[in-house]
Specification:
It is found in: Cell membrane. The chain is of the alpha/beta class and 637 residues long. Helices cover 62% and strands 10% of the residues.
């Protein structure tokens, strides 16, 4: 019995096929994600939080069901092979050790090696397939989320900061990839092992199996109780991670301002507060997971020790053989190890459930710019006639942190404007008059409170948003430069443009002269947000993009405000040529920009105060005279 005692002790210490490090906590959050605002659910009523997560993940697995089936088959092959090793243990004890039969022992050892080879091969195939599925599902989730994000209006991003979106898009989808590729596979394998192990234990000894089953509720109870706690705390932890990352995103993007105002110490302190908030949120999750793992391990080992004592008594009385008890203990330890694996994996799955809820919120955020089922088509040749009829708009529907702002004052109040095809119209007025908002409404980035906007006699609400926006070429007040080459930045205006067409557009925008000075010319990488360019150079790249787009309506927002006098003159000549025959709306604070307009519209607090030429308005509009006199003084200085 000395040999049997040593064998039993070794089975208690090593659980075969165990894949999880119980001492390892893999839930530490990545610090480089998300928002300095406190995260709140995007959807009202917490309907998303009540939605089952696993069926949602299943929709992404469905296209790859052949691989899922193959992985399950290999899982069963590997598990059955592991389970059969218990019988190998029984044979080694009863027919090898106890009978001192070396030849039979050698045969059994070779059999065990063969079974182990089969099991290892199945594990390889299962691991490869499940890891591939995890990567594929993560990629598909990111594609779906990104596709939906591109459909959401600027109003959505006005209430949820970009850093928070990035946190959900990257960190949460990566967590799901880990769960699908690893944790879910481990949970399935452990579940099969538990069921198979219990069956084999029952075949070996019903009495001892009954004792083991009595311990099952004691082990499963903590798993379900603490599992729910871990899920809720994991969601809170992921939200705090989101808060942290957006703060990093904001400070690093505005590093010039941070350093210029020597704000480093204050930002460091604020960042420390957010890091500690992440840690505080993680403490509760870690505490519950630690309790869960410790309880499961203690109860499992306690049950095994009890069963070992009862089984040893049965061997002494001759009720079962030493080999049968060895096999039973093999299965008992295997089942205990699998239950411990399930307890560990449930924590990961619950954490992934919190991440899934955050992703579901993004995907199920309703598109706030409604579209008609059958959009109307624009005429083949768009003239660019624009008509605004009693247009009213306020930001009362734009929410911040999920809280609607009631009684928001109207930014645009009852505008009636008609712009004829090919007309050049300048918009002037103080900051907050509604000029930039009007551009947003023309492109239907926001939904009107009331009234209509028509393009060539068709209500833009009846057009597909992409069809509408393809009629505008925009030069914004703050030029947008992407982290790519000069060529690709300009080609953004028309993706099918040749390199020759891009160069022609840059020549027209007077950008070619400085581009040629770059060592790599049009292939020069401009850096994030065009860090390598001056303000005037960025402006000319944006103008070249609009020239290349060659669309019937031009929206120029302070199009020459960032240029020096010489560059401005060159660009104005290019714009004059570009605007010929096109409907053009210009937002300007500089008198020189609007002098050549066919008509000037004076806006104040969202209302149209006056309309006419420069000479007419100088005679009839006190507000415009004030604007013109102030601007003339500025330009004289």
């Amino acid at each position: 019995m000395n040999g049997f005692g040593k064998l039993t002790l070794s089975l208690l210490v090593v659980a075969p096929g165990k894949e999880h490090p119980l001492s390892q906590d893999t839930t530490s959050a990545s610090p480089m994600t998300a928002s300095s605002k406190q995260s709140k659910p995007l959807s009202s009523g917490s309907d998303v939080a009540k939605r089952p997560v696993l069926p949602w993940i299943g929709t992404f697995l469905r296209p790859y069901k052949s691989r899922v089936i193959a992985a399950i088959i290999f899982l069963f092959i590997g598990s059955l092979a592991w389970l059969s090793l218990g019988q190998g243990v029984r044979l080694m004890v009863d027919e090898g050790f106890l009978q001192d039969n070396g030849d039979r022992l050698n045969e059994i050892i070779m059999l065990v090696i063969g079974i182990t080879a089969i099991s290892s091969s199945a594990i390889f195939c299962r691991f490869y397939l499940m890891t591939w599925l995890g990567e594929r599902v993560s990629a598909d989730i990111r594609l779906k989320v990104y596709d939906h994000l591109l459909k959401l209006s600027p109003g959505f991003y006005a209430r949820l900061r970009t850093g928070e979106v990035i946190s959900r898009f990257t960190a949460d989808s990566t967590l799901l990839q880990s769960v699908v590729g690893s944790s879910l596979s481990m949970a399935l394998r452990a579940s099969v092992t538990v069921v198979g192990g219990i069956v084999m234990m029952a075949i070996t000894s019903l009495k001892l199996t009954g004792l083991v089953l009595l311990a099952v509720p004691m082990v499963l109870g903590p798993i379900f109780f603490f599992g729910r706690k871990v899920r809720d705390l994991s969601r809170q932890s992921q939200d705090r991670v989101g808060d942290l990352g957006a703060y990093v995103d904001e400070t690093l993007h505005e590093i010039h301002t941070v350093q210029a105002y020597t704000h480093e110490d204050r930002d460091r302190a604020l960042f420390t507060d957010r890091v500690e908030a992440v840690m505080d949120a993680a403490k509760g999750r870690i505490r519950y997971r630690s309790i869960l793992i410790a309880l499961v391990m203690f109860l499992s080992i306690l049950a095994i020790a009890l069963v070992t004592w009862v089984g040893a008594q049965d061997v002494i009385t001759g009720s079962i053989s030493g080999g049968e008890l060895s096999a039973f203990m093999f299965y008992a330890v295997m089942v205990a190890g699998s239950v411990a694996t399930i307890s560990e994996v449930i924590g990961e799955i619950q954490r992934a459930a919190g991440a899934s809820e955050r992703l579901i919120e993004l995907v199920e955020t309703p598109i706030d710019i409604p579209t008609v089922a059958e959009p109307k088509a624009l005429p083949e040749l768009v003239t660019g006639e624009l008509t605004l009829k009693q247009v009213r708009f306020s930001y009362q529907n734009i929410q911040e942190n999920g809280d609607a702002k009631a009684n928001e004052p109207q930014v645009i109040g009852g505008l009636d404007i008609e712009v004829k095809p090919g007309e050049r119209v300048a918009l002037v007025g103080a900051s907050g008059a509604g000029k930039s908002t009007l551009f947003e409404l023309l492109q239907r980035f926001y939904q009107l409170d009331s009234g209509t906007i028509e393009l060539d006699g068709i209500d833009i609400a009846m057009l597909a948003p992409q069809t509408l926006r393809q009629q505008y070429a925009l030069v914004p007040q703050e030029s947008v430069i992407f982290a790519t080459s000069v060529l690709e930045n300009v080609r953004y205006g028309r993706l099918d443009a040749s390199e020759e067409e891009v160069i022609e557009a840059c020549i027209a925008a007077r950008a070619d002269e400085f581009i040629q000075d770059f060592s790599d010319g049009y292939q020069t990488y401009l850096g994030e947000r065009g860090v390598r360019l001056s303000g005037g150079q960025k402006q000319r790249i944006a103008i070249a993009r609009a020239i290349l787009a060659d669309r019937p309506i031009l929206l120029l927002d302070e199009a020459t405000s960032a240029l020096d006098a010489i560059s401005e003159q060159k660009v104005k000549q290019a714009l004059d040529s570009l605007m010929a025959g096109k409907t053009t709306l210009i937002i300007a604070h500089r008198l020189a920009t609007v002098l050549n307009a066919d008509r000037i519209l004076v806006l104040d607090k969202g209302l149209l105060i006056a309309s006419g030429t420069h000479q007419e308005l100088m005679a009839s509009s006190e507000l415009y005279r004030e604007f013109a006199s102030l601007q003339l003084i500025t330009e004289t200085v």
